[in-house]
Every structure is written in C-alpha cells, then in structure tokens.
Amino acid sequence: MSIASALSVRPMLLSVAAVLCALMVMPATAVIETYEFSSPELERRYHQLSQELRCPKCQNQNIADSNAPISQDLRQLLYTRLEEGADNDEILADMVARYGEFVRYRPAARGAALWLWLAPLVLLIVGAALLLVLLRRGREAPEAVNPDELARLDALLVGSAEAAGPSEDSRP
Asked: What global pTM score does this model have?
C-alpha cells in the first residue's frame, strides 16, 4: 500500500468512526422513566397522557420525548396526579389552567382553537364554490357578434392592409 492511498483512507475511517460513536451515544439521550405504578391501568394512562401533552419549552415535542427540565416536572406531576386518583379530564384541565391550551396536542374545539378545527372545512367549501363558479363561467356561450360590427371590422382590416402596401404574396 502506498503512502498516498493510506493517507486517503485514513480520513474516511475517522469519519466512519465518528458517525458510529455518535450513533452509540444517541440511546443515552433518551428519556428513561423509573416510576413505579400501583396498577398497569395507571401506567397505560400515564403513557397516553404524556404523549398528548406538549412540552412548553420544546414546543414540538411531547413531554414523553422531551428532556427539558419542565417536561421532567410535568411527568412527575402527571405521575403524582394519577396516583392520587385524578381522572384524565381533571389532569388535562389542570395542565391547561397552568400552561394554556397550547400544552395539548389536540386542543378543545372551542374559542380560538375552534378556528383550527374548522379552517380546513371552510377552505374546502370556499375552494369548491370557487371551482364551480369558474366552471360555469367557462361553459357560457360567447355573445353573438353584431353584423354591423363585423362589417366595420372587415372595413378596418381591408383599410389597414391597403395602407400597409402590397404584401410579398401579391408581388409579381
């Protein structure tokens, strides 16, 4: 193996090693919960609710996937409230009271959030109505041309052809 080929392989091996090291570290960044639930039903509800609640800091992650300190606090609060016997609606109402409707991935269909639910339907109806209007307008027959206007147009065309002089086709 020549020195030149050894030098070209070395950077590639280093980059492959760096990627492999990065992939091995990724599982260490995952959220690990160690809560002991009193029943499997509470654990199932915990996982369902933690998927439904949005992290106030991360904004595009639920509290189950976020490592932000606020998400850790919310998971602890969720666990505590479940063990105290609160039902899902009470827990969601508490979270909304603290952090606003934003904390829910599926906000209730009322108030300002109602527009989020209705906007696709409204846009679909408006688009369909616009399409119908355009299609009907395209099907209408064109207006009949007045015979007097046709005669005037022919006179204008003949007059402009004479003013332009003889064309190449009429030359001998």
From this structure: 0.49
